[in-house]
Design brief:
The complex is a heterotrimer. Chain A is 36% helix and 26% strand. By secondary structure, chain A is an alpha/beta fold. Chain A has a domain of 174 residues: Rossmann fold (3-Layer(aba) Sandwich). Chain A has a six-stranded mixed sheet, sandwiched between helices. In chain A, strands 2-1-4-5 form a four-stranded antiparallel sheet, covered by helices on one side. In chain A, α3 crosses α4 and α3 runs parallel beside α6. The two termini of chain A are 29 Å apart. By secondary structure, chain B is mainly alpha-helical. Chain B has one domain: MetI-like fold, CATH 1.10.3720.10. In chain B, a hairpin with a 4-residue loop joins β2 and β3. Chain C is mainly α. Chain C has a single domain, classed as MetI-like (MetI-like fold), CATH 1.10.3720.10. Helices cover 75% and strands 0% of the residues of chain C. Chain C is built from twelve helices and no strands. The chains are: A alpha/beta, B mainly alpha, C mainly alpha. Chains in contact: A-B, A-C, B-C. At the A-C interface, α2 and α6 of A face α7 and α8 of C.
Chain lengths: 253, 335, 282
Amino acid sequence: MERPKVRTEALNAWYGTNHVLKNLSLDMSEHAITAIIGPSGCGKSTFIRCLNRMHELVPHSKTSGKVILDDTDIYSRGIDAVSIRRKVGMVFQKPNPFPTMSVYDNVAAGLKLNGMRNLEKLDRAVKRSLEQAALWDEVRDSLFASGMSLSGGQQQRLCIARALAVEPEVILMDEPCSALDPIATAKIEGLMTNLKEQYTVVIVTHNMQQAARVADYTAFLYLGELVEYGETTQLFENPKNELTERYITGKFG
Amino acid sequence: MGETRRMGQLRRPTSDDIFVIQSGIFASAIIVVLVLTGYVLVSGSVPVWSKFGRGFLTGTTWSPVKEVFGALPYILGTIVTSLIAIAIGVPLSIGVAIFLSEMAPHAIRAAGSGVLGGLIRTMLRILSSGIELLAAVPSVIYGLWGLFVFRFWVLDYVETPLSKYLGSVPVFSGTPFGLDILTAGLILAIMIIPTVSAISREVMTAVPLAQREAAYSIGATRWEVIRISVLGYARSGIFGAAILGLGRAVGETMAVTMVIGNAIGAQAIPSSLFRPGQTMSSLIANEFNEADPTSLHPAALIGVGLVLFMFAITINVLAQLLVWRVLKIKSGSVE
Amino acid sequence: MSNQSVREFKDWLAFIIGGVCVILAMIPLLSILADVVLRGLPALNLEFLTSGPGVIGQPGGGIANSIEGSLILVGLTCLMGVPLGVISGIFLSEFGDNKYGRFIRFLNDVLSEFPSIVVGILAYSFVVLTVGSFSTIAGAIALSIIMMPIVTRATEESLKLVPSSIRDAAAALGIKKWRSTLSVVLSTGRNGVVTGVLLAIARIAGETAPLILTVLGSQLFFSGLTKPVDALPLRIYRLALLPYASAQQQGWGAALVLIAIVLTLNIGVRLATRGRMSSVRS
């Protein structure tokens, strides 16, 4: 494996007294797609929300352990969560463009609200991000239409463009295709494969076929613990753990 | 193993912290307003309390010239007009609420989805908007209408007949001429209808479907369902709405001032519905500007204001607690 | 009569009584509207709307100074009351899910039911006495105390309707909470806030009692923040109590102007938000 871009060391997370993640240590490679799979409630979403410190926004939440981005523990004292979230971007399950903003303003939002004023720079960033999100051709003539006027799949690509505009290093995707139809899903999966050349991608999915299609590495979580982790082909064809085998053959979950 | 971290562990205040604090300060302006009000009312009225003590509340003489002040007539005036307001206004409001929230939907369903149904639906929407618009009419316009129109209605259709047939009853004694306690009470009744009926509707519609279905399933008629399930369940909420209406009536100033007849002192004691009277708020509105600042008069008026404030706060806190509790219980038990 | 038909009769009776209650409640509204229009319309003419008061008791003159005064008062009040109310509403919605927030919310509800004459006493003691005279600024302060809880509540309720996914999206972009609240959340909920402000304006435009104690009223046009000023509801009050028919008719005319403004705001808001807003306690 190449140098891990993000790794967790003994990561634990709680919602109140509910111990959701247990001692998770996982490496995620740079320029690769890592998929997190597992049955509902296994902690997949909680896990990636710890990677960009979104978990701590929930009241009564707690974490312990380390999440190391490059060489820095993002949870160490003195590290500002907001700055981490610029480096580690996120795309959500249900597309959530800002309703009162145009396509352009949605993509530019992260930059504008962090102080960028130069119109030329903004224009270039918007175009670049929309191209990377494979949406540019579809919206280039209607950049100032409302973000909500796009279809579901387009909205999700808009959200991806919005996340890309702030030039993150890691992109987290929480079941990004589960609200979309198969055609839109295929478009986004193709997009992911392009994205990994520049970014590190971690995706949560309940769809094993999707993991098998796009991910380089796959981690299987069960009840908050890491059960197995390895190269996708190896995990699916030759799982080392019996629990993994039962899950991927559909015996539960 | 790293240490356990809780959310929000920070050393230096960030701009987000400042935002929370600043907006919190703005929100706390309310506390400042209430505290200042209490302070102003208490300190401004100290002269009358020290001169008359509790006699201020029990005395009935009100003479700025002789500097003797007793606020009892006005306290009674507020109480009596407000009681009239809820005695008439609350039943009307409940009737309105029941009609609009329980019976009307039935009528809509019965009329079907054709032209008739659409017509009825529109009519009902207009009616319910109309009731809400009653709340939008400024108090001074109620007073204007009361002074020139409503008082004659009350005089001709209510007071004159009552005086003719029941004039021997003390409450109906005296020759009515329209600008009196009764008219004031009735105008207040009208003014509280929007509030009381709106909240009653809210608590009635919050009654869970399961309760109503239980009654329907044993063959109850529409009215019986309302009587058994809805009213019983919503009883404390409706009670809270009535208290809120009482609070409104107590605090109302302009409409009352213009129809109550502006009586002073012992003359203002509400011994008969047909006598002119005075409430605490109308007194202040009538006399505050003319009160001689070098005398005890302003302090006396502020003292009356303090009593009014205590009334209003107590009633409104009680009402909020009742209504809040009922609505919270509802939203919690809907599952 | 069988039991069943007695019960059905009661059912019908209840329906009729309910309908009668509604009709009884509507009569005052219709009567007020009719009287204001019938009695006030004759008073409306160009002179009435554009000139100041004439000689008391004689026909002529108008209410232009009252209209001007009301506009100025409303404007000043909004300048103070809207930011105060909106930011308080933001606090309650974004940071108010705790004991302190509940406490503030409770006080807010109590303040919104306050007797407005007591607010007048407060403003009198703090502003009129300090400034030294009945004044526009005192009236504006009194009215903003009345306006604030209304705007706070409207802001809080509309911000609460903004889905949390919007806040999550903004946070995930590394945008600071205060920035995202003001730029994204507030802008998403702005319709509800505007509605609340408009309804609050309709309410304070009609307030009289606090103005009696703070601006006093005046025959003149606006002459300074620290001087008395006239206002529509005040003028209606004074005109109504004069013993002259011409004055009373002017009172009705002024009432027509006031009610036109207030009802336009209310009905306008109602039409604009048809179906979209949940019930708002005024």
